[in-house]
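ugh ok fine here u go
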Amino acid sequence: MELNIEIKDIMSHTSEFYSLSKDRITLGRKASHEIAINNKYISDTHASIIMENERIYIKDEKSSNGTEIYTNNRWNTLDSRKQEVTLPVQIKLAEAVVVMIQSGESQMLSLSEVENNVAIMVLDLCDSTNQALDNEQIAFHLKQRLNNIAKPILYAAPINFYKNTGDGFLATFPKTSQAVNCAIKILKILEKRNKSSKNPPINVRIGLHKGVTYVIDPSTEDIHGIDVNITFRIEGLTKRAIRRTKAHIGEKNRILASKFFYTDYMKRAGRKKDLFELCGSARLKGIKDKIEIYRINWK
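structure:
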């Protein structure tokens, strides 16, 4: 059986394409492998694609930084045992390379056909677990009120994508300026609401990033990618993740953004530089390189 394989480097956004029909296809940094990947996070021998009796298996070859497979609408970690898969399938090597594997008989769908370079926003409700334990009805009301405040602002932006995450949402925008404007509007309305309401305050954290997202399953249109993961990490960032910073990061009602987001925003004419305050470089969980973090002075 011939396989069509695309190797997409997440950091450089470059792709290579292969059509192979061997019983075992090995991926790694070694030049002798069927698919040699020049990326410092990839092990010499990272993973294998195995064909046995018209069945396809994926196996992690005890790599240093791991292999994940996208199944049941989520990324799942592979161990060193081979796992049978159904084509088409995607695997991720070391949070650095995405591999799309399809049958040679099907039309090759490139990852570039399902990717979007967008501004990404993650908003999360602070202390939602304790609120639910104290009074589940009030907790539900706060989430509903947050949703009622945020959604009209988001859809007026406009947005490319919206997904409710239970305690908040994930959204993408065509422009970084639209994401900043929405984030500031949401926090200002929440601030006004908190001062006038007799109910508990609605406190949130917002993370912003600029990067690439992928629609893996067109039937759900859900988005994925390392840049989505980065945005979630920025939203939940603690001051301990940024050493020797003098910036006031805060634990709630804040907007944190990546250097990638900041750089894109500042390219646009007439932007206010003092809107952003550099906090420092942060080590984010599951992300190999440090990322510079900025705080937006929304007040």
